[in-house]
Amino acid sequence: MRGRKVKANLKSRVSAGFLTASWNAWIDAQGEKPTMAEVPVHRLEYWLEEQDYMLCLDGVEGQLKRRESLLNVMDNARLEQMNGEADFWKQMAGASLTNLYAFRQAVITIRQRYFDGIELLFPDSDRSLADLTKHTEELITSFNDQIIKKSEDKINIQALRQDTDKVVIERVSYIVDLSKS
After folding, report:
1. Under a CB-based contact definition with an 8 Å cutoff, are residues 98 and 164 in contact?
2. Closest CA to 47 of 102, 101, 92
3. Is the dihedral of CA 51, 56, 57, 60 positive or negative?
4. Which residues are within 8 A (CB) of 104 and not within 5 positions of it... i.e. 6 or more apart?
5. Scanning 72, 89, 99, 112, which has the fewest C-beta atoms within 10 Å of its C-beta?
6. Beta strands in the chain (DSSP E)
7. How many CA atoms lie within 13 Å of 68's alpha carbon, on the beta-carbon side?
């Protein structure tokens, strides 16, 4: 503990924090119309695991060995059983990226049409959206490279972006036309 400014046992202060699963369990236990401080509250949906980290007692080497073993499982005879799961994740990843592209394009289109190009999102939100999009694209690229063997089965990120941009621009234009009439 030499050189540390905080002398207390930091591990004793670690907590799981807010967990979506425990929140949803509490909501379910409250009955038909749950409230908190007289404000209606609802269940939360989540798509990812509840933790942002994975504890590897063996350090980075252990994490890499675990990753390697998981990838090797994909290459063995059980690959047929996992095709359905791979298809599910492919659809989920494609839908998530489409939603991110659609949101970004809607923000851009609305900003250009109604706000003279002034940014609508707070800088932190804009960075978070860009980071989430980048990491989702990286995840899909890894999925394409490591899991999908046939090139026709891979998720085409460029085509997904172009199709989404085109559809969003058309829909925003349609909504604008409706509001004018």
Report:
1. yes
2. 92
3. negative
4. 129, 133
5. 72
6. 35-36, 39-40
7. 6
Model pTM greater than 0.90? Answer: no
Cα–Cα nearest to 24, from 58, 50, 63, 61: 50
Assigned token pair, 79: 């690959």
Nearest to 54 by CA among 42, 62, 46: 62
- What's the CA gap between 175 and 47, in Å, rounded? 30
Dist. CA 144–CA 173, nearest whole Å:
34
Helix ranges (H only) for the chain are 20-29, 59-75, 79-114, 123-146, 157-180
For 37-92, write each residue's pLDDT tens digit. 888 888 887 655 545 455 555 666 776 777 777 666 555 555 555 667 778 888 88
Point out which residues pair with 40 in neighbouring strands.
35
3-class secondary structure, 46: coil
